[in-house]
Amino acid sequence: MKHKKGENVNGWLIINKPAGMGSTLVVNLTRKLLNAKKNGHTGTLDPFAEGVLPIAFGEATKLIPYVMDGDKEYEFVLKFGVSTDTLDLTGNVVAQSSKIPSKDEILAVLPQFIGEIEQTPPMYSALKIAGERAYDLARKGLNPEMPKRIVKIYDLQLIEMMSESEAKFRVKCSKGTYVRTLGADLAQNLGSCGHLTALKRTKCALFDISDTILLENLKNMEYVEERKKLLLPLLTCLCDITVIAVGEEDAAKLRKGQAISPKAYGDIKLGEAAAVFENELVAMVRVEENKISPVRVFNL
User: What is the pLDDT of residues 132-161, one digit of tens each?
Assistant: First the structure.
């Protein structure tokens, strides 16, 4: 989101989003708090959820796709015996079950959810159907047909039984995974039904919960310059990517959108994304057999 007023602010601010607040509201608030022209988030975190929400400022917004494509980690609380239309505690009850699985029953089915699994996204989601958000269609009383998708679950653990009917889990998963759906599918597999009563994102790509700052702490800082000191460099999200150092001439070509020859830069893996430097970040590029082509050019 770009605004005429404000300063050119570049970098990452990793917010620990509070439950009950929308991601867009966090973007708007942080832009004002840092007096920035432009910022954006790396994918919507459900309003009822909390946790890691990376906010990109200025030139960092060009790197948002690299964060959105990263893996995620969550902790969630699943309540068995009651299902809602939103699959979380904000919705209306649509089904109930007297079946409440035991700890041993839960542990026995968890391996079935590891690896590639098929999911149907919830109706109340930001997914677009024929140009409209699914949650807008659902609120109109329509039942949009949600396309199934394949996601990957790397790990799923039962952390603790919080009560007879509530259990806390930790999941490591690929982009595009709906944890609300995962909880509902898990409950259904156990012969029950269920919905999430809590959801916390603990990791988003390379950003961890330990990198976050509370919005209240940010608001309590008196000066804008003090808040800006919390910004992480653009490259923070690219720590595991190939880096190519170029000279002034090749840097100038890339900044103009022109490709350069890979011959002078050794053995670089073809088809992979890489970051190009000349004192500072110049461009994100695609490495091909006969050329290195700019994909995103930075104006720092």
Answer: 676 666 676 667 677 789 999 999 999 999
Q: Residues 258-261: contacts with CB within 8 Å, 24+ apart?
A: 258/294, 259/291, 259/292, 259/293, 259/294, 260/291, 260/292, 261/290, 261/291, 261/292
Q: Which amino acid is at 273?
A: A
CB atoms within 10 A of CB 34: 24
Instruction: State phi, psi for 128 to the nearest 5 degrees.
Output: -90, 130
Angstrom distance (rounded) from CA 244 to CA 238: 13
Q: CA separation (Å) from 32 to 24, 39, 228?
A: 13, 10, 12
In the residue annotation, 185 being an active-site residue is answered as no
Q: pLDDT digits over 231-278, tens only?
A: 999 888 877 788 889 999 999 999 999 999 888 887 777 777 888 888
Confidence at residue 266, expressed as pLDDT on a 0 to 100 scale: 75
Q: What is the pLDDT of residue 106?
A: 98
172 has which bridge partners?
A: 73, 155
- CB contact set of 170 (below 8 Å; sequence gap of 6+): 73, 74, 75, 155, 156, 157, 159, 202
**Closest listed residue to residue 295, CA positions, set 266, 273, 280, 277:** 273
pTM over 0.90: no
Catalytic residue, chosen from 46, 88, 185, 211, is: 46
